[in-house]
Amino acid sequence: EAGHLDRRLRWHEVPRELAVLIGEGSPVDHAEVAVSRGVEGLGDEWDAWLGRLAAFRDRNGHVKVRSMATIFGHVLGRWVHEQRDAWRRGLMPSRKVARLKGMGLTLDLDSEVFAKGLAELRKYVMFKQKRVVPLSYTTDDGFDLGLWVVDQRTLQRRGKLTPRQIELLREAYFLWRPAEMPSLFFSHPEDPEAATITRTLEEDLRRLRWQPIGERRRHFRSLVLKHHPDISESEHAGSTITFLAEVKDWFLA
């Protein structure tokens, strides 16, 4: 409110939850000074700027703030630009994002989802102390972070991420290539001849694991057709196709 008015609050303008903290018998002018000092010393300057944005909206009927636009002598446009930049980079707390959106300030939908993903990834790395996000991981507020991470890898392989987005993902400790699946995760048949076939396939799939998704899909489809029991005459076709089914999600992730 102080930013909205650009002056010290009068006593009747002080929010009730703040006014009750002041002694009942205090002179009004002393109370106003106490509130002002509290706001200036303990308050977040960001809230004052938000008040200036509200004043700009009240005056102009919108929040389309030009880069050098001012309000009460303050360069509001520069502040708005800084907020959007922090928002896009996923560096803004959700409380502040909500308040900006409440003012009518938005990013485009794709940018908002990307910024949300960055913010959640930063929190995940900070609290979990690791960079590998399980595919099924969902945040407390319902954001599918695991799926979002997979989507970013897919977009990167297809050349759909901008250099800026790639830079922001790196800043957020994004892991472009998850660790290779340990050998013990590959289950091979007990039959030596069948295991020879599946181990050869394992080497082939590991080698091609980081090729573009389209190429990997074509290659995997050809392997399925080649080794399917309805087509292959090999006595080990059944165990081979079972192996391929088990590694499909890993290879096509």
From TrEMBL:
Gene3D superfamilies: 6.10.140.530
Protein source organism: Alexandrium catenella
Residues covered by the Helicase-associated domain: 45-104, 112-171
Designated name of the protein: Helicase-associated domain-containing protein
InterPro entries found in the cross-reference section: Helicase_assoc
